[in-house]
Amino acid sequence: xxxxxxxxxxxxxxxxxxxxxxxxxxxxxxxxxxxxxxxxxxxxxxxxxxxxxxxxxxxxxxxxxxxxxxxxxxxxxxxxxxxxxxxxxxxxxxxxxxxxxxxxxxxxxxxxxxxxxxxxxxxxxxxxxxxxxxxxxxxxxxxxxxxxxxxxxxxxxxxxxxxxxxxxxxxxxxxxxxxxxxxxxxxxxxxxxxxxxxxxxxxxxxxxxxxxxxxxxxxxxxxxxxxxxxxxxxxxxxxxxxxxxxxxxxxxxxxxxxxxxxxxxxxxxxxxxxxxxxxxxxxxxxxxxxxxxxxxxxxxxxxxxxxxxxxxxxxxxxxxxxxxxxxxxxxxxxxxxxxxxxxxxxxxxxxxxxxxxxxxxxxxxxxxxxxxxxxxxxxxxxxxxxxxxxxxxxxxxxxxxxxxxxxxxxxxxxxxxxxxxxxxxxxxxxxxxxxxxxxxxxxxxxxxxxxxxxxxxxxxxxxxxxxxxxxxxxxxxxxxxxxxxxxxxxxxxxxxxxxxxxxxxxxxxxxxxxxxxxxxxxxxxxxxxxxxxxxxxxxxxxxxxxxxxxxxxxxxxxxxxxxxxxxxxxxxxxx
Length: 575
Ligand code: DON
Fold this sequence. Notes:
Helix content: 25-40%
Bound molecules: 6-diazenyl-5-OXO-L-norleucine
Mean pLDDT: 89
Oligomer: single chain
Number of domains: 2
Shape: globular
Low-confidence stretches: 1-31, 195-204, 373-380
Strand content: 5-15%
Number of helices: 19
């Protein structure tokens, strides 16, 4: 998705004008089930009390509806996660997994891991050919590509912080699946083509109908699955009829998830990864995501330098940040994996002295060198993960990134259950020293083991100043996720940008190997020439870097809610 600045500015201005009206005007009564109405995409809203930014206008509307019905940020997060499985099946899911970072108004911060796990029968070499070379396609498409899904376990685990009864939270998703929603050009129209693209799907969503733009997309099988979960809870997914259908699907397609794998799946509360940056407190996701650790490493590596005074987009600022990215991503490949399976030196990697030492060979105006541990290969990133940020009227905040991994995951729909399974097994390092499809260079700590969680890059993060939430942020984009979050935070804290600018200004990405700076359109010719003179190899990205959903508390205490214009459908809602 190429970015068009004038159009974006126009859109932002327009939404600002319209949304100021609804934010400070009389509170409009929400008619019940208003989320079923035809939708509008709006990238920015300023709200007085509460709001949400997500990749889907319908899901954001569901979030707003729940917030206005008396739900808190956790209620809204549960309803939005379920709605995304219906209205954004490219990435929203009940057949995948993700992470939630939560701040409760009483001051508690929590991090919930509902990442998928390798089935018990998974083996280190399961995607290698007889010569020991990775056969990535087996970990990307079809029944062997899926980890044991964690989303439903995550939802029920977080329910203890919700206020509304679960049936109320799942009802919008049921309605949207049952009654359907309009397939919009450029927004949901690829649903119409998904069945012809992927022949591994025995039964696309609900059957044989080829959905087209302008039709109402109904998912009866999925609606029935959601109704069973409404009536019988978590157990239904992991031990009941849905579990039976998943296992039946596995048998049909030669997959390896068993009833025992499903029964033994648990979401896990982790100690959030916390650190400070220039007087702000960061709360982010720990292992099995690399996201929080990378964010910590990168921010701390640049903290001793006056990056704000270099100016946004300057050769100096980009050079410094690229060097921090290079060093952090090297650590990702060398050390990171599921901390439940190996001893990962997180304390050392996030130690201030270590990080300072890492930058001791940084020379301003001179590109560093990435010494290869294996072969580096440029990856095309896709955006098929999704993030949403929510703040409620009481000051609770939730940052959730959830994924099937690539677009439509493994492409396998669970027959008669109507939902897609993930292809998260590709996030393991199939062979140390090779990249996965999300761009991650794999090390031995991330090799496949039964019951292990694959290393992620998802970086749901909440930023505080004086113990008050100031930013809720996250993004999809594979290994570009930590850099997108890193740069959004630096744009806000160091370059003093507004929320809208922090989203729309161009981003760049370096991940150690390949030794290339990927860069979005929008930096000056002078900056690019300066980087080349310093010795950087520059590659213009064809898509975009990140798709950040951001809530920032502005200087008047209002919520500036911005959904990334890199995604056509990303929408902010608030009141
Ligand atoms: O967990 C991860 O880091 C990946 N599964 C995220 C994938 C993503 O953002 C989309 N594609 N590259």
